[in-house]
């Protein structure tokens, strides 16, 4: 992976982590805001229902008192009439005052003041009513009957009236939650505000009511939420609007629990995503991926008889096909060994050999393929147990699969000794690879019973160049002859090397002089050519 790809991946990772961290917090926030709005609107509805009940109840009671006055038989404003008015005013809690007026609307008497003598309260004439029902009930809203006196809500009919405190309509609502909510009661026939809670702007309440009546005309804004309830039996409506909140109040009302919960969940998800991606992108993650996806291919380097130059077999060399690149084993085998992935790779190499060359080996029993094993493959009989049945199924003879083991694979010498014996007993020849490069190649040659050794390329390279070290190859060959083990010389690139090695007694060799590692089809062709077929 180059630096640009790494940079792009890092950027992608950051974006994913950010999305993963913020998305749940955002969703949580939106969700919480919705539920908060829903809660708010439910609360407003509860207040509105209570307010409407209250308004209807007050209206009903005032009408009842009015109806009782209508039944008083005494002459208007006579002492018994005034007594009756006082009794009615006392028994109806909501009634502040009751009284009578003449046909011209002039005030005649009152339960509080008694008979109003002409002259004292001259000019106290009722104005035209704010509302009049079909059956003759009239209402005055916000009427101050005495100069400087309190305003009253007055309901009258046929020359008599009851007066009440307008706040009766809206008191007792404070207990229903947020007292800052504005409540207004409206007469819907004349669109007049009858009463509002303290500090509530009547004009604003009326504006809200008008907007609600014509929703199409409602401006698209995030105005404060409101609820309007209309009475089914009376020309009344109530408007409840939520208070305009200050920034600090809004912040306090934010669904912090949801926000923090969402953020925590997001960070968890992001952490997991980061862990997952980093793992996937790590060499180990990519190699496990490759094992899972069978991304390995095998190249076959012909091994030839140095005398006849005929091909006798091939060494299987694994490659990792990573996207459109081929990765050489030196770059991943150590990691695979370290991370416990090498056995799976060995198995895949064997599967590939049998798939690609199974038929060929069955047909030409004189050829063999040698497989490179690592320490874990040589500590137990596991691979042997896989190998035996697999070649049997293909009809490939045990002699046709040979084993190459380096000194590094002899970590557990006792176990390796046993496993090597088992391979040989099963018919697989075993070679000591990279011979001469380790510290104890000679001692290994004594400890392990093996069939042959592969002279490392470094000793072949010096042939014909440096007399001192080029003789090492010659000594190894002599020693092999003494021990009666076969020799394969690796990395032969020049003809003089091949000639020299053969003259000294090395029977087999491999290297670019003969052929580089080939595909299965190329190897089959190569073998055919050297056979003279
Ligand atoms: P090795 O077993 O010593 O394999 C020989 C290496 O030398 C191969 O490299 C081969 O391509 C290269 N080579 C052959 N002839 C010449 C030549 O004339 N000149 C030069 N310069 N190089 C030549 P490769 O394929 O890169 O393999 C490297 C090492 O990876 C192998 O060394 C072997 O130790 C390991 N290896 C390869 N396949 C496997 C496998 O399936 N399993 C295990 N455990 N190790 C493997
Ligand atoms: Ca080898
Ligand atoms: Ca080697």
From TrEMBL:
EC number in record: 3.1.4.52
GO terms assigned for molecular function: cyclic-guanylate-specific phosphodiesterase activity
GO cellular component: plasma membrane
Recorded topology in the membrane: Multi-pass membrane protein
Localisation per UniProt entry: Cell membrane
Keywords: c-di-GMP, Cell membrane, Hydrolase, Membrane, Transmembrane, Transmembrane helix
Predominant place of localization: membrane
InterPro entries xref list: CSS-motif_dom, Cyclic-di-GMP_PDE-like, EAL_dom, EAL_sf
Catalytic activity: 3',3'-c-di-GMP + H2O = 5'-phosphoguanylyl(3'->5')guanosine + H(+)
Transmembrane segments: 256-278
Domain annotation EAL: ranges: 280-531
Domain of life: Bacteria
Entry keyword annotation includes Transmembrane: yes
SUPFAM superfamilies (alphabetical): EAL domain-like
Name of the featured protein: cyclic-guanylate-specific phosphodiesterase
Annotated source species: Caballeronia cordobensis
